[in-house]
Amino acid sequence: MLYGKEHVQRYQATDGAEGHDWNNTTVLLLTTKGRNSGKSYTTPLIYQRFGDDFLVVASKGGDPEHPQWYKNLVAHPDVEVQVKGDRFRARARTASEEEKPEMWRTMARTWPDYDDYQTKTDRPIPVVVLERAG
């Protein structure tokens, strides 16, 4: 089972042949710019397509704090995404209250633990929309 840095390295080295399909779902790589450091950080995240866009969830397993990658993209919404061999720039945004219920259902169908994570924390867990740039 791939996790963390090893997951990112194998995914990048194989154009997602290793790492895209994970635990009966699908994973993309999200690269954000550190809000304090300015460094690039790449995180493997479960995703689903939603029309032309890609959805990811800032769950951090139901932790009371948002994940670092989410804090980074709030500060710097221009991100890079890799889905299998497709690498592209995207604009990240948090789903609106109107959009979120349908998007949340889409994500919970692929990873039912998201519903459990939400019960563990008082913070609303964001759904992030990644819109391909240009």
UniProtKB/TrEMBL annotation:
InterPro entries: F420H2_quin_Rdtase (IPR004378), Split_barrel_FMN-bd (IPR012349). It comes from the Bacteria. Belongs to the F420H(2)-dependent quinone reductase family. It catalyses: oxidized coenzyme F420-(gamma-L-Glu)(n) + a quinol + H(+) = reduced coenzyme F420-(gamma-L-Glu)(n) + a quinone. It comes from Nonomuraea spiralis. This is Nitroreductase family deazaflavin-dependent oxidoreductase. NCBIfam families: hi_GC_TIGR00026. It holds the Pfam family F420H2_quin_red.
